[in-house]
Amino acid sequence: FNNAQENAYEFDTQNIRGDKSRVKLHSGTYANIQRSLNSASEFFDIRGSEVLGGMDILSAGTLSIINVTGEKGVQFGSVLLRDLLHKIVELKSTGQSNIPVLVIIDEVHQFYNTDNSREALADLDRICRTGRSQKIGVIFASQNENDIPKGLSSVINTKILFRSDIASSKYLGVTSEEIQSLSPGFAIVSVHGNPQLRIVKFPMSLAGVNNANG
To answer: Does residue 180 fall inside a structural domain?
Structure first.
């Protein structure tokens, strides 16, 4: 690919039917592709790295954390997530795995700002609609309920709101006083099929708590 100029930007191609042909790219198109490849090499051309497959995620008792922070991390993370989602759904649809899996996306507002991430969210939308039968769950976490993509809000069966600012009170139809009065660990919820349930309490984390008795 780097010697394209010597070949007048002509490349051998093959379509899905197996037909071969030779295609000439415009120099500007070639430059755009080359920039994308150079950018991707930061993530893929790493010696000693291992391929992450669907079965690596679908392992009982396994917690997989994918950190995509950084200037280009979110864009790369959306591509990676989409690939993993396809692999997970394929493995479960073909009966190769029956292990439940829970996908948690934190700071979701950073995730769907690119075309690739929006495509991944389209896959998540399908999983939200059909994933229960395949034991696939999805949690979206954000500090602002408006960050949840509108297309996904309609398929989210359970919404949990911890103490937040006054503007958030409109989200579940509660007053600002109710939001501000929530104690640590308590949350207002909206659960499909259980309208009577409004407030729940989550167990507090013991991380960082010193135990005098060892």
So the answer is: yes
What's residue 118's pLDDT?
Answer: 63
Q: What is the pTM of this model?
A: 0.64
Distance CA 88, CA 102 (A): 11
The 3-class SS string of 186-207 reads EEEEEECCCCCCCEEECCCCCC
Domain coverage including residue 82: 51-156
110's CB contacts (< 8 A; 6+ apart) are 74
pLDDT of residue 111 exceeding 80: no
- Of 135, 156, 177, the last residue of a domain is 156
Burial of 85 (0-12, 13-18, 19+ CB in 10 A): buried
Q: What percent of the chain has pLDDT over 70?
A: 71
Strand pairing class (158-161; 101-105):
unpaired
